[in-house]
Amino acid sequence: MVGKRALFFDLYNTLVHFDYNVLPTVELDGQIRRTTMVAVHRALSECRRLRFGVEDLLRAALDSRELLRRLQGEQHREFPSSHRFQLISERLGIGEPDLVELMVERHMEEMFRMMYCPGGSHETLKVLARRPLFLASNFDHAPTARRALREFGLADYFQQIFISDELGWRKPGSRFFEEIVRRSGVDPSRSVFIGDDPVADIEGASRHGFTTIWLRPPGAESRPRTGPDRVIESLAELPGILEELGLEEDSG
Fold it and tell me: With a threshold of 0.85, does the pTM exceed it?
């Protein structure tokens, strides 16, 4: 990596985005929610007679998500998607391993169906492709994240890909950043982290010595408490911002 300034990209809502409008809706506690649980419930009902409705499944899914967030705690451990669906299945009395696997599969198919890659992601990565590029993402099912990178044609841009499901740690935790620095061999003081999440991406990377560039989400009401070094509204601004910061590609 000597002589080259490495760039680390977040994946979701930075390079690949979600269109939640493709999901069906469920009314729960007076709120209309778009959810993957409609497809999960349908898949389960094709296998066995269910004693619960899609609303019960959605409630269990929301509760399990909150529980795992608490369990992550200060260490920011990652729990794989299978762990979450194990919790859901136990709550609903359907703990068979094959049904848990089915639930994960259908949930992730719906997640993938929501994903799309704006043309600007490719254009920016092509411009920056002579640099060492890395991807560092929070996601609880690495096969789906890697599928997205392959099918959207992004995987080959990156020298290494780091996904929290495989590392066992999540951003903004120290263990995540320590691992990506160790495995990539980069010097954070000569590296840039680009992402949309003000805490996971910007605060986390700033604490570990990275220059940070915040891709501000539309309508964002709060900003990172530490960093960023620059703010952009679209990836198209990134090459110019790197030059402005004096971080254009080194010649060595």
Answer: yes
